[in-house]
Amino acid sequence: MEIQPFNIIATILITIIIIAVSISLIISIGYDVKSTIPAQFQNAYKGFLRAIFAGAPFDPCEAMDGRQISIQEFQNFLQSMAADSCTNKTYTVTLSTSYTKDDMVQIAKITNIAKQGELIYFRSSEPLGVGGLIIQGNPGEFPLKLWDTINIWRAGEPDPDILIKISVQGCDPYDKDCDISCSFKKGICDRECYKNNKKFDVPCDFDCVDANKDGKINALDLDGVCSLDCYNDHADPQRAYDPDCVFKFRGQVDDICDPDTNGVRDSICDPDCAKQNGVCDFDCNGIVSAGNPLGLKDADCYVCDKKCNGFCSAACDVFDEDPDCPDGFKDWNVLSECCGNHMCGEQEDCQNCPSDCPPIGLSCENFGRSCCPVAKDVDDYGCSGIKNLAEDAACGCDSQCTIGMNCTMQHCCKVGKFWDGSKCSDKADVLIVALKANMKKVYSDSQIQTLESKIAEFTQALASEGLGAQLLYLDEDKTSSIIATKVSSPSDWQNIDGILEQLIAKMKSKYIIILGGYDRFPQAPEIGTGGMAYTDDFYGDTTGDSIPDISVGRIPDPTGGSIDLFMNAFNTMLEVWTCQALLTRRQPMLAKVTGAVLVNASLGCYLGMVAPVLHVFTTNHSSN
């Protein structure tokens, strides 16, 4: 049997790749190959990695960046950093457990870092250059706590130290401290903050008061503990209040009526709530009882307030359009989620409902976090511990970048610049445009985010071939940051054309890809020999002669929208682009090895992919 040269070469290449990947994995978990592999092989190995992976070996720290990590992952992280297996940058992770000082010494011994734990420093803040571990953590027994978000980096000469600094304090309900952040963690009660007749100046913790864990507060939660932090006249997270405190002070008029008691039945009438103040205390029913010793009656319970406040009166009907019950009163416990009721609902976050997420008038910044619901380390309110990112750093939202920067194509760039797939630039060869207001009429935020991630893959592929690309919503502020204006009338093609003309000149664009059908992005009318027609050509005309100067394409979607259509279109374009790159850039290098095999495979790939995508770039459509 004759052995084909191509099969032999392919086998050799695959074997070398397996060896290279294996060595990368060994390095990534902390082993030192420098002392065991001859220098000549090291150089050949590094050169081969650059040829295969474009100079970017696997970074184990990058894989955990922005995530909540386990104990084992934390150990691997520190070991990889000590072995210099991570790129020289600052990483951000969230801890899934608390660590004492002794725990950190034990981890240092297990991972063989910081001279087996002898070089761990808890009070120093500056690098010492001794190969140590410097922790700027919490005071007391636990320098690092559950849900702490920490920054980790290396610095110092001659032997870099590993530095850990808390960027956002977490919450450990099992230590002996009262952690304020626990009050904002759903499902967590820090018992050190919940003591009878004690006040710790923290928000009332719903999970501590909810004694029977049924997800609501009422008379069944009387447990003999009156937390004075829960007796107030302002809103608390999750509309928390303590019925034990209301019972304790039920005979006093002290001008404290907790708005979180609005519409709640707890068998206790608060005389301060019985006044007309917009808070309905159902237990003030006009009947003398143990819970209502004065026999007070609250008139607020019989008026439809038409406000989003977690209460719907029996007086509300469909015509009142009360946000808590837009279809009118059904039952006391039948309420609709609305923004403004001091409850951060499942579909709400710090972006679409900042008044409730976080609650009680706070913001992510109050907790040292940034508002970014798409972040990998996002909490219940859409807040992220990742912030103050430098230029070129990967991001999810503007708020994660340093002041004066925007998050463009998932990377921080200075205002006026954008990520072209490989760097921040003021030039975009390919301009991908859409109108956010029209897109949101048929697509959810999560669908739009999914599409944006796929477009980021596409721009990355273009960048690998030297083409800069950028997605811009013409009616959003990021467009204004580039040309000091944006689309104000999403249905006016002339308004859109004026914005595009400025962007094309500013960004030196050569191609335009429009996202959406004609309901999402209108065309320009033109009169031809066949009557009225509509076209995208005018969007590519930069000289005013009605002839397009740059190429314009469109990915149309149906009237009702189809996110799958967009995803399939970009997937197909990615595959086409990969085939094209294989035929052009990579063919000369590999043709000597594979001969006609590569060409035939590439042509088959290219011709098989190009047909489905041809319909995507259609610019002229008649009115009928």
Overall form: flat
- CATH secondary-structure class of the domain at 384-554: Alpha Beta
Q: State the strand order across the main sheet.
A: 1-2-5-6-4-3
Figure out the total of helices: 14
Largest sheet report: 6 strands, mixed
User: Remind me, CATH topology of the domain at 384-554?
Assistant: Rossmann fold
The name of the CATH superfamily of the domain at 384-554 reads Gingipain r, domain 1
Distance between the termini: 64 Å
Helix content: 25-40%
Uncertain segments: 1-56, 585-624
- Percentage beta strand: 5-15%
CATH architecture of the domain at 384-554: 3-Layer(aba) Sandwich
What is the number of beta strands? 19
Mean pLDDT: 82
Helices and strands, with pairings:
Blueprint (H helix, E strand, L loop, with lengths): L4 H24 L10 H15 L6 H5 L3 E2 L1 H12 L8 E5 L5 H11 L8 E2 L11 E4 L12 E7 L5 E8 L37 H4 L33 H6 L121 E2 L11 E2 L20 E4 L2 E4 L3 E2 L4 E2 L4 E5 L1 H4 L5 H20 L4 E5 L3 H7 L9 H15 L3 E5 L8 E5 L2 E5 L15 E5 L7 H22 L2 H8 L1 H18 L6 E3 L2
Parallel strand pairs: 1-2, 3-4, 4-6, 13-14, 13-15, 15-18
Antiparallel strand pairs: 2-5, 5-6, 7-8, 9-10, 11-12, 16-17, 17-19
Helix pairs in contact: 4-5, 9-12, 12-14, 13-14
